[in-house]
Each structure stands twice: as structure tokens, then as C-alpha cells.
Design brief:
- The protein contains 9 helices and 10 strands.
- By secondary structure, it is α/β, with parallel strands linked by helices.
- The protein has 2 domains: 173 residues, Rossmann fold (3-Layer(aba) Sandwich), CATH 3.40.50.1100; 98 residues, Rossmann fold, CATH 3.40.50.1100.
- Strand 3, helix 3 and strand 4 form a beta-alpha-beta unit.
- Pfam families: PALP.
- Its cofactor is pyridoxal 5'-phosphate.
Length: 303
């Protein structure tokens, strides 16, 4: 008997469910004959949409010969990318050093360490993610490891050109009219837009950005000098500003009214998607639920 060819965990990154929102905004959606669909990225092995670029960046670097098992990798992260990279590094045999501001949730810190990553916490008052990014590059210059640099690495959006975009197109039978995503590192919105617009240039791409004074994990505006190099503004048709209170309220409603336990950035994306739904008719609107809510329990968002 031939041995069974069992899959490995990397084969379960992607192909996440696309589900219909049933109760939130039901009256609005029905009146305008719109369909609102949630792409459940928390179903990835390490729990977020960042599993896709993490796997892509490491595998593509291996193929080019830039890294090999046993090397040390370094990355600045606000959470999800770090968790995903820690998982892939464990899977592929790398030492992973992650640099993260100390004001982010304890669940995210612990998740990285569970996978065996070394965690360096920086003080938020020193400059937050911008400082963490600078420190990662400084450590690379000192020969302490290789920075994958999710902010400038084209293998980040490539993951979404190859997987997320095609999955949305396939699962909507090509009927998607609007795609809504939180904007942080911008890999998701850049890659998905590249693919979807190659299939139908009329598809509208909408980015959720934080309103002035709002602090929403996973959604942020960068100072011009730190704007991710992978971002292409021409691929985003509209940006919607999201208040922190609206993002948090929507995250709670997703759990209690839809049974979808997701993070605050996903609540922000849902709020933006409902804003889109107010202005269109006969539309199929897809938004990204980028992670699971259990990594935000200590923040008090869910009460």
C-alpha cells in the first residue's frame, strides 16, 4: 500500500469562507437590493489575513536564495504579521525576531512567543510602529538578521494577487462590484485590487482609514515618509474615514448578531462597507474580516 500523501499546514493558508451578512444592515441592504459578503480570514492557521503574505514572503525569498533554513529573520509588526511570520518561521526552520510597540494587546505578544519568536518591545512614546520599522532596519545593517520588510516587499501583495483576489472572483462568480478593506500595511488592498481590476476595471475598491484621533488596530494612516512602498494609490477608488467608536461597535455587533468574532479593524471595514451600501444598488460588496477577535479580549473592546 502506498503511504497516504497527507497535507502540511501551509496548504491550509487561504481558501477562506465568503459568507453573507444576514442581520446587520438587513433593512438597508434589502431596500437597495445589495448583497454584503464577509471574507473570513480568521480561518487561516495563524488566525489572520497576514498568513498569506507571511508565507509568500518567506517562500519567495527561499526560491530566490535570499534566505535558507537556520537564518534569522527580523520584522517590525503591530501584531498579525508577526504572529503569521512566527508560524511560518517555525514551520520552515528560521529564528524569528519581532519588534512591536508595547501598547498592543498581550494576546498578540503571547501568540508570537508561543511559536518560538523572540519579541522586542519598543516604547510607544519613542515612535510606535515607525520607530519599530527603523529599529528592524538598523538591526539588519548590524548583521543581526534579514528584514523581510512587509511594507516594501512586493511578495506581500503578490500573495493577494495569487490567492485572495482570485478566491473572491471565484466565490462570487465574478459578480463582485465593490471590495472594502482596512488599510494598514496596504498589501491586501493593493493585491486584491490589482487582481480584481484585471478581471473587471469597473469594480470599485474602497479603503477604510482611521478618522482623526481614532486608534484602530490594523487601520492606520502613515506619515508620508513611512507610507508603504508597496502601496499604489491609483488602485484605490475611494477612502472612507472610520471613527474608533464605530469600528468597535461594529466588531461587537458582528459577534452578537452574525456570530462572527473578529477584531476591531474588521468592524471598521464592515462600517465602511455599510456606508458604501447606502450609495449603491444591486451591488455585491465584499469586505475583509482580517482576523479573529480573541486576540483583543484584554483591550476591553468586547466588554
Amino acid at each position: 500500500m502506498m503511504p497516504k500523501n497527507y497535507p502540511t499546514i501551509d496548504q491550509f493558508v487561504g481558501n477562506t469562507p465568503l459568507v453573507k451578512i444576514q442581520r446587520i444592515g438587513a433593512e438597508l441592504l434589502s431596500a437597495r437590493q445589495n448583497i454584503l459578503l464577509a471574507k473570513l480570514e480568521g480561518n487561516n492557521p495563524a488566525g489572520s489575513v497576514k498568513d498569506r503574505p507571511a508565507l509568500s514572503m518567506i517562500l519567495e525569498a527561499e526560491r530566490r536564495g535570499d534566505i535558507k533554513a537556520g537564518d534569522t529573520l527580523i520584522e517590525a509588526t503591530s501584531g498579525n504579521t508577526g504572529i503569521a511570520l512566527a508560524m511560518v518561521a517555525a514551520m520552515r526552520g528560521y529564528k524569528m525576531i519581532l519588534i512591536m510597540p508595547d501598547n498592543l494587546s498581550v494576546e498578540r505578544r503571547l501568540s508570537m512567543q508561543v511559536y518560538g519568536a523572540e519579541l522586542i518591545l519598543t516604547r510607544a512614546e519613542d515612535g510606535g510602529m515607525e520607530y519599530a520599522r527603523d529599529l528592524a532596519l538598523r538591526m539588519q545593517a548590524e548583521g543581526k538578521g534579514k528584514v523581510l520588510n512587509q511594507f516594501a516587499n512586493t511578495d506581500n501583495p503578490l500573495a493577494h494577487i495569487r490567492t485572495t483576489g482570485p478566491e473572491i472572483w471565484r466565490d462570487t462568480d465574478g459578480e463582485v462590484t465593490h471590495f472594502v478593506s482596512a488599510m494598514g500595511t496596504t498589501g491586501t488592498i493593493t493585491g486584491v485590487s490589482t487582481y480584481l481590476k484585471s478581471k473587471n476595471s469597473n469594480i470599485q475598491i474602497v479603503g477604510a482609514q482611521p478618522a482623526e484621533g481614532s486608534s484602530i488596530p490594523g487601520i492606520r494612516k502613515w506619515p508620508p515618509e513611512y507610507m508603504p512602498e508597496i502601496f499604489n494609490a491609483s488602485l484605490v477608488d475611494k477612502e472612507i474615514l472610520v471613527e474608533q467608536s464605530d469600528a468597535e461597535r461594529m466588531a461587537r455587533q458582528m459577534a452578537t448578531e452574525e456570530g462572527i468574532f473578529a477584531g476591531v479593524s474588521s468592524g471598521g471595514a464592515l462600517w465602511a462597507a455599510l456606508e458604501v451600501a447606502k450609495t449603491v444598488q444591486n451591488a455585491t460588496i465584499v469586505f475583509i474580516v482580517c482576523d479573529r477577535g480573541d486576540r483583543y479580549l484584554s483591550t476591553g473592546v468586547f466588554g
